[in-house]
Amino acid sequence: MFGIGMPELIIILVIILIIFGAGKLPEIGSGIGKAIRNFKGAAEEDGKDKKTPEKLDDSKKT
């Protein structure tokens, strides 16, 4: 899709390691994982809301 192969990924990871340091990498990974999990949960909730039709209450009509 983007033409990113293994050498490019290694270069990107080395640059990230240099910028953030080895101590921050677990925190960054954890934060990214939580963000992806929250995004998936929100997307699933949004999909459930669209699939269920709204019920109209006819007794309140006058």
Descriptive account of the structure:
- The protein has 2 helices and no strands.
- It is mostly helical.
Outline the biggest β-sheet. Answer: none
Counting DSSP H or I runs of 4 or more residues, the number of helices is 2
Q: Gap between N and C termini, in Å?
A: 58 Å
| Stretches with pLDDT under 50, minimum 5 residues | none
Q: Mean pLDDT score, rounded? A: 80
Radius of gyration from the alpha-carbon trace, in angstroms: 22 Å
Task: Tell me the β content.
Answer: under 5%
Search tags:
mainly alpha; elongated; 0% strand; 62 residues
Please render the helix and strand layout as text:
Blueprint lengths: L5 H15 L4 H27 L11
What is the compact description of this entry?
This protein has helices at residues 6-20, 25-51. It is mostly helical and 62 residues long.
